[in-house]
Amino acid sequence: AQTVTQSQPEMSVQEAETVTLSCTYDTSENNYYLFWYKQPPSRQMILVIRQEAYKQQNATENRFSVNFQKAAKSFSLKISDSQLGDTAMYFCAFMNAGNNRKLIWGLGTSLAVNP
Amino acid sequence: KAGVTQTPRYLIKTRGQQVTLSCSPISGHRSVSWYQQTPGQGLQFLFEYFSETQRNKGNFPGRFSGRQFSNSRSEMNVSTLELGDSALYLCASSLVGTAGTEAFFGQGTRLTVV
User: Fold this and answer.
1) Contacts of A49 in chain B (CB under 8 A)
2) Do A105 and B42 touch (CB under 8 A)?
3) Sorting pLDDT into bands at 50, 70 and 90, what band is B39?
4) What is the pLDDT averaged over residues A58-74?
5) Would you call A113 exposed, middle or buried from its count of C-beta atoms within 10 A (0-12, 13-18, 19+)?
6) Which among A43, A50, A101 has CB closest to B31?
7) Lowest mean pLDDT, pick from A39-43, A108-112, B46-50
8) In this structure, is the dihedral angle defined by the CA atoms of residues B5, B6, B7 and B10, taken in order, positive or negative?
9) Does B103 contact A103 at a Cβ distance shorter than 8 Å?
10) pLDDT tens for residues A2-34?
11) B42 and A106: CB-CB below 8 Å?
């Protein structure tokens, strides 16, 4: 069975600085997708970034980028130029390729951006 | 384009009662998934519906059930409520195929069982 582990329950960063959130996963599959979702206090789960396992190039979305290490089964999220609005819970999630839409989640990292 | 709509936003129920939660997906999305979120267990997959058929099911007791209608709207039902069922229930909708890997979430229904 697949598992997702986020080893940092809480983190904080100063506004405008860079922070990296860690995620490791376990799977025997070769084709899959990895995601970082953000959940602010409003509870709305929002996709931050997505990575296809078959792509070697790391995904980037504006200030957000990932370091995807397939062999090490590691998928970290880097947030550059942190903003107050980045304060939220961040969840790493795994999904097998195919028709299955089941997401397997880590327990999350609570990120606080301080002014 | 309207997002995923979950109703109601908040519910308080008594142990032993049953509850029905509703989810309207984004127009054109035919896959609807449900998740339970609790502080202790995190986010856990309940089930996924596609074209009115349950396509995948998580490890929850039979008290948790769901269905999907022809317009892709979905409901989940929990019978004989227990205190441990108190949670945030999230619904997500997706497209199908390789273009449908992103799940769009509603704001959730906060269920409190007393």
Assistant:
1) none
2) yes
3) very high
4) 96
5) buried
6) A101
7) A39-43
8) negative
9) yes
10) 899 999 999 999 999 999 999 999 999 999 999
11) yes
Q: Interface of chain B against chain A, CB under 8 Å? A: 31, 33, 35, 42-45, 48, 50, 55-56, 58, 88, 90, 92, 94, 96, 100-108
Question: In terms of Cα–Cα distance, which of B59, B91, B103, B44 is closest to A4?
Answer: B44
List the one residue out of B70, B20, B76, B84 whose CA is nearest residue B45: B76
In angstroms, the separation between the Cα of residue B114 and the nearest Cα of chain A is 22
- Compute φ and ψ for A26, nearest 5 degrees: -130, 125
- Give the list of residues 6+ apart from residue B83 with CB closer than 8 angstroms, or none: B15, B113, B114
Closest partner residue to A102 (CB to CB) among B56, B90, B108 is: B56
Beta carbons within 10 angstroms of residue B84's beta carbon:
10
Task: Find out whether B6 and B91 touch, Cβ atoms under 8 Å.
Answer: yes
pLDDT at residue number A100? 75
